[in-house]
Every structure is written in structure tokens, then in C-alpha cells.
Amino acid sequence: MIVGSAVVQWGLAIATLLDLRRRDDDEVRGSKRLWRTAAFVNFVGPLAYFLFGRKKRG
User: Mind listing the pLDDT tens digit for each residue in 11-24?
Assistant: First the structure.
């Protein structure tokens, strides 16, 4: 169970970092540096980014 949680946590962190790399600054709410740091805060940081940090494209 602990190993599974760690895998999910790191997967979310990596997905967050890759998404931040692909997006322009105007597609992210707030500072990209702040979101990169938040990506390493358990599950909360990546989930907050995906729920609140991204602006819709288009």
C-alpha cells in the first residue's frame, strides 16, 4: 500500500512538471516556479495544480 501510494504521488509530480514545461506562462495561474515547488507536496500540490493552476487552452 505504501509503495503504491508513493508511485501514484511521484506519477502526479512528474505529470505536473511535464505539463508545466509544455505550457506557456499565460496558460498557468500564478508562478510556474511556485507550481513546480508545489508538485513535491504530497498529493495536494499536483492536485491543486490540475484543479486550480491551469487555464483552459484556446
Answer: 999 999 999 999 99
Separation of alpha carbons 14 and 5, rounded Å = 14
Whether this model's pTM surpasses 0.85: yes
- Which distant-in-sequence residues (6+ apart) come within 8 Å of 13 by Cβ? 39, 40, 45, 46
User: Residue 33: which of 13, 55, 15, 17 has the closest Cα?
Assistant: 17
Is-contact 27 55, C-beta < 8 A? yes
Show me where the domains of the chain are located.
2-53
